[in-house]
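# nightly structure sweep
# worker-07 picked up a monomer target from the shared queue
# config: single-sequence mode, recycle default, output format = structure tokens
# input follows
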Amino acid sequence: MRLPWRGRGGSRQRSKGQGLVEFALAAPLIVLLIAGVLDFGRGVYTFNTVSQASRSGARKAMVDQVKADVRTAAIAAAPTLGLTTSNVSVCFKTQDTAERTCDSAQTDNCPRSERMVGCLAVVTVTTTYRPFTPFISALFSSIPVTSTSIVAIEYVCPARDATVLTCP
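# output follows
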């Protein structure tokens, strides 16, 4: 049976713009969702890279206690983050200390002249993550990301004199 008010192919002609309107309503939400997932992935990548950088610096500090070398190892482990020496802090503590950061006034209570196997090397890497999704960046313009690795010194470089700054 044919309805007179529909005419020929009437239902198709009335819904010509319906798909366009639905797409116009759904597209921004889909793009925002995809951008949010990518942003979240970038955040996880940043956190993992900072963690890897602190572990890499701590591995170097286990056998070579030269702070510049430890910082270089940490920075080299995270080339995509653009870390500098100010993003990496290195200090050495005695094994019985309760301090687990380099923030105290006495940052090295295991100084180079008294360093021995068992002292703790503390390597902290810090950076800032900035989301690119407009909605997320409106809520959080920058998110600090920090990772600390603490390892026991396994080898102390034999210091022949005060001018020797690297391990043989």
